[in-house]
Amino acid sequence: MMRNPILTRTAALAGALLLAGCTAGSSGTSASKGDGDKVTLTFLTFETPNLDAKYWDAAIDRASAKVPGVTIKKLVSPSADRTGYAKQLDSTGQFPDVMIGLNPAGFAEAGKLSPWTDKELATYGNPRANTYDGKVYQLPYAAQTTLVYYNKKDFAAAGIDTPPQTYRELLDDSAKLKKKGINPFVVGGGGKDSWADMFPLICTVATDVYKKTPDWLSQRAKGKVKFTDPAFVAAAQKVAGLADKGYIDRAGLSRSYADTEQAFRDGKGAMYPMGSWFSASADTKKPDFDTGVFAWPTDQGAPALPGVLGGGMTVSSKASDVPLAKKWAKAFMEDQKNLDAAVKADGLIIDIKGYSPPSTMGPVYKKTVAAYRQAQKDDGIVNSFSQETGDGSLPPGLADKAAAGVQNLLGGRMTARQFGAYMDEQWDKATR
Amino acid sequence: MRIRTLTRPDGSAAAPEAKDTAAVRPQHTPARRSSRPSRRFRPNGGPGRFALFAAPGLLAYLALVLVPIGMTAGYSLTNKNPFNPPTRWVGLSNLTSLFSDDDFLKALQNTVVITVIVTLVTNAGGLAIALLLDRRGWLYNALRSVFFVPVVLSAVVVSVIWQAILVDDGLLNSMLRQLGVSHPPGWLSDPSLALYTVSWVIAWQGLGFCVVIYLAGLQGIPQELHEAAAIDGCGPLMRFRHVTWPMLAPAVTINTVMSLIGGFKAYDQIQVLTNGGPGPGTTSTLAFQVIQTAFNGNHVGYASAMAVAMLILVATVSVIALGWLQKREVSA
Predict the structure, then answer these.
(1) How do residues B1-44 score in pLDDT, each as one tens digit?
(2) Given CB atoms, is B86 within the 8 Å cutoff of chain A?
């Protein structure tokens, strides 16, 4: 034991300094040129139950085989929040050279990303889907949407023949299910996966806000609308109302994303509002019931399907060899086998000219794509709240704040109006 | 502690043990000088040698701790946001804004609650377990290892394990349902419980460290003191109060200060178990708030001000606690 008080206090102070010491970064790039024009590029990716390490390693190998001279050093985000991880890497001077699925907001405006040219985007079906001040920073290679996946066995048990077409019918069906002792909705979002609680709100904002005002978020940025306006409050109220009526299982809110998916598989609820990536999982690891799909209904039945188009590669403007990094990123993104693997693993709806998904895709995926294509045909695709990219997107950090607020909304600890006020307050903080 | 002397049956004090040993040392034993450390390794080799030995550690401390702290302090005086240049000098406005920032104040409040719980649980629990394990035998040796295991596990691993136990349809609630509890508590989903649940997990992980320190303290207490107290008629409680507890004062100092620091730096468990929720900031701590503000909200300057405030707070609490506990050691 230390008996010298000065020495011990100094040691305690040093310990405290060690504890509170924060690292600070310097600018730089992690790419390096080696001998013989060999270039090592860092590639930031993420892993999920659908997209595991094996999937990424195989895809990296296929792309690298097409671009000689490139060696890829894979970086895996510690959680699904690869954008947050990219910020950490950036602040310590380790911003990756190539990234997939990064939200370009902030990085794009700060000049940290290299824009894609029209020529480079020529093969993409909707090349200008997400622009920042007229420039495209992320390859818009695939669409994702949010639908309601449902347990056909539960619906049949409750005497429901067809999925609901209007919001009134959705409420009626929920009441029938509950009466039969079946939990209507499975919703999760515990721990670091708080984003998973957003899907009911993503759907109601699509039907009640974005359907009527597609550029609502851009208007919010200009101060023309607020989250406390009746349209947004009505959307939030629908979610709160579902929880108040006991249609959303509040007990599931502490579940992680993986556990939430498993809960639906295990029959712990009849409906599962989730991203279209679930379709791949529903087909490959089929539950012991048939899975149906429907779009969250509007009041009148007109289509309003939340969609995101993007998710592809971004390239750092500081990469040591930007042209080569872009070449590798495009090789990765446009490789037929990689696209097929992405479709099979993550249920992506590829938006590259001439691409067709493998004919072996399962029925849930096919129904998902059909719902998306139908909504496209009916001009029913709208933005996906909290997942927007491009000029009209949420300020950095606000999506996580929204997810935390939804926990209170679902838990009955916040009214829809209070949730709107909370979002306005958080918006002001984020843009201060 | 004073040097003990042994009392002979006739009442005269025996010579110190060292002298007894010297008395029986064979006469042909080599001179003591030969067993001294060589000149090369003498600790008092002058300031140059001291600097030579201290330099690597000092350089590492300077580069990895002091310089980043200095940079953080510098950033705290700016509006630094890597995505919104240029960075401007804002003086102390970041620090003063903290006092009216509800998110920061909530995080501060949560941190204090966690710290108090962790300090109390680890010390009380650690001492109780150490007292139970302070005996010989293979079972006790094995149990000591069992209690130390959580200390060597990563906080993330511990959190993932506890998450599986504590979620609403997890292991604990399944057991409670089996026992007939129809609506078991939402350990992580109920805002009135989540902070205490997270505190418990942090305390559980730190418990093993306290057990080891208290065990070391207990085993350092001379058996003669207990025997003397017993001869004087002290029961187990009196012996604990008048012998064990005072003699454990240094262990209490270490455990309390380490628990305080452990509570203040709580981050990993929050990130994995609750992500600051359920709801906005319910279990957010200072460390969690710093990371969120810097890397999620991009407000590096403001987050640096939070880190500086945290540094001042931790240093102040640590030094005060240490000073107070060390006074207690002297008086004990």
Answers:
(1) 333 333 344 444 444 444 444 444 444 444 444 455 555 555 56
(2) no
CB atoms within 10 A of CB A147: 27
Is pLDDT larger for residue B113 or for residue B11? B113
Could you give the CA distance from residue A377 to residue A48 in angstroms, rounded to a whole number? Answer: 31
Distances (CA, A) of B236 to B44, B150, B217, B244, B252: 47, 31, 18, 10, 20
Q: How confident is the model at residue A304 (pLDDT cuts 50, 70, 90)?
A: very high
Count Cβ atoms below 10 Å from residue B190 Cβ, excluding itself: 18
Distances (CA, A) of A248 to A197, A244, A392, B280, B315: 11, 8, 30, 20, 46
Say whether the peptide bond before residue B86 is cis (omega within 30 degrees of 0): yes
> What residues in A contact B75, CB-CB < 8 Å?
24
Q: Using CA atoms, how far apart are residues B194 and B277, in angstroms rounded to an integer?
A: 8
Judge if the upstream peptide bond of residue A127 is cis by omega within 30 degrees of 0. no
Q: CB-based burial of residue A205 (10 Å sphere; 0-12 exposed, 13-18 middle, 19+ buried)?
A: buried
Start-to-end CA span in chain B (Å)? 11
Instruction: State the pLDDT confidence band at A335, using cuts at 50, 70 and 90.
Output: very high
Quote the DSSP letter at residue B4. Answer: P
Q: Which two tokens stand for residue A202?
A: 């993503």
A92: tokens are 């310590």
Per-residue model confidence (pLDDT) at position B45: 67
Q: Which amino acid is at B63?
A: A
CB A146 within 8 A of CB A380: no
Band of the pLDDT at B169, cuts 50, 70, 90? confident
Q: What is the pLDDT of residue B5?
A: 37
User: Parallel, antiparallel, or unpaired: how do β-strands A32-33 and A381-382 relate?
Assistant: unpaired
Q: At what angle do helices B191-219 and B249-264 cross, to 10 degrees?
A: 150
Residue B332 has pLDDT above 70, yes or no: no
- Joined together, the tokens standing for residue B269 give 């468990």
Judged by DSSP in three states, A390 sits in coil
Q: Which chain B residue shows the shortest CA-CA distance from A2?
A: B250
Number of C-beta neighbours around residue A10 at 10 A: 13
| A352-A356-A361-A362 Cα dihedral, nearest 10 degrees | 80
Q: Judge whether A50 and A277 are in contact, CB under 8 Å.
A: yes
The nearest alpha carbon in chain A to B302 belongs to A432
CB contact under 8 Å between A259 and B265, yes or no, is: no
Q: Using CA of residue B2, residue B3, residue B4, residue B6, what is the dihedral sign?
A: negative
Note whether A278 and A272 are within 8 A (CB). Answer: yes
Query: Residue A419 above 90 pLDDT?
Result: yes
Distance from CA of A334 to the nearest CA of B (A): 30
Sign of the torsion formed by the C-alpha atoms of A60, A48, A312 and A396? negative
Retrieve residue B60's tokens. 């590492």
Name which of B68, B169, B298 is nearest A23 (Cβ-Cβ). Answer: B68
Please provide residue B25's backbone torsions phi and psi, each rounded to the nearest 5 degrees: -65, 130
Predicted confidence (pLDDT) at residue B307 exceeds the cutoff of 80: yes
Chain B residue numbers with beta carbons less than 8 Å from the beta carbon of A88 are 295
Q: Write out pLDDT tens, residues A232-285.
A: 999 999 999 999 999 998 888 889 998 999 999 999 999 999 999 999 999 999
User: Does residue B122 register a pLDDT over 50?
Assistant: yes
Q: What is the pTM of this model?
A: 0.83
What integer is the mean pLDDT of A288-306?
Answer: 93
Q: Which residues contact A405 (CB under 8 A, 6 or more apart)?
A: A414, A419, A422, A423, A426, B279, B280
